[in-house]
Each structure stands twice: as C-alpha cells, then as structure tokens.
Amino acid sequence: MIEKYNLFDSNSIYEIIKQELHIGIHLLSATKEYYNTNDLQGMKRILEYLNNLPNTGNIENVKGGIFSKCDEKKFVCENGHKNSIDFIFCEKCGINIKGLNEEELNIIEEFKEKCNIIEDYIN
User: Fold this and answer.
1) DSSP codes of every residue in 6-29
2) Looking at 25-29, 31-35, 65-69, which range is the least confident one?
3) DSSP characters for 70-104?
4) For residue 14, is pLDDT > 80?
5) Average pLDDT of 77-87?
6) CB count in 10 Å sphere of residue 71
7) What's the Rg (C-alpha) of the chain?
8) CA torsion angle for 88, 15, 39, 56 (degrees, to 10)?
9) I need a labelling partner for 25 at 20 to 30 A (CA). Which of 2, 42, 58, 72 fits?
10) Count H helices, E strands: the chain?
C-alpha cells in the first residue's frame, strides 16, 4: 500500500530499516507527490545508516584443497558459504558481505539517485 498510494515517509522507513532491514530497503522505492527539505534530511539519514551497515560476512584465510599447502583468502558469507575473494555476491545464496542481495543494492542505488535529484532540485 505504501508504494501503491505514494506514501513515502523517510522517518517511518528509517525506523523500519533499523528493525527489519530487508523490508525497509524494499520500501525505498515508494514515492510521494512532492518532497521538502525534511524529506531530504530523512533520506540522507537512511543513506548514512545503510552506508554504515556492519559486515555480516567476512574475509578469512581458508585452507586450500588436499594438495595445497597454503591458505587462501575467501569471502565467507553470513551463511558460511566460502567464495572466491573476487566475488561480490555468494554463489550459493546471492548475498554480499553486508548480507544484501543484488536487487537490494539496486534499490539502494536508485534511492541514492533520487536523493541526489531531489537535493539538486531543492537547492
């Protein structure tokens, strides 16, 4: 309903993101008819929160295969899946080191663009 009826409210979405990150991220695509400086401040607060999310996965030294003597660095997602250090998203579950999937990152990027556009328009 929030998206359907253009009921974007940055303060409410910020509180939802703090409680239910993945649900809150999907609400970022909601809009409203017009935005003011209060909306922009709330949007920036959301972006700051998202930019400072803690890592849920990590980079670890993992033993190589049976015939390998050296350890190698691997990206280990929050579900314990080991991936090449070059992978942004886990091959098995599709999440990154912050626990976000590609769709969520795209929503956040679109939200950043919307925020920049609104800021340019207001200023």
Assistant:
1) T---HHHHHHHHHH-HHHHHHHTT
2) 65-69
3) SEEEEEE-TT--EEETT-SS-TTT-B-TTS-BHHH
4) yes
5) 95
6) 11
7) 18
8) -10
9) 58
10) 4, 3
The answer to whether residues 103 and 97 touch, using CB atoms and an 8 Å cutoff, is no
**94 conformational bin, left if phi > 0, alpha if psi -120 to 50, beta if neither:** left
- Both tokens of residue 24? 């809150």
Tell me, what amino acid is at 77?
A: C
The domain ranges of the chain are 1-53, 54-102
Question: Is 1 strand, coil or helix?
Answer: coil
- Distance, CA of 10 to CA of 101 (rounded, Å): 22
Confidence label for 77 from pLDDT (cuts 50, 70 and 90): very high
Structure confidence at residue 71 (pLDDT): 81
Stretch 23-44: mean pLDDT, rounded? Answer: 94
**What is the three-class DSSP state of 63?**
strand
Cα–Cα dist 109/123, whole Å? 21
Contact by Cβ (8 Å): 31, 99: no
pLDDT digits (tens, 9 = 90+) for 62-76: 876 666 567 889 999
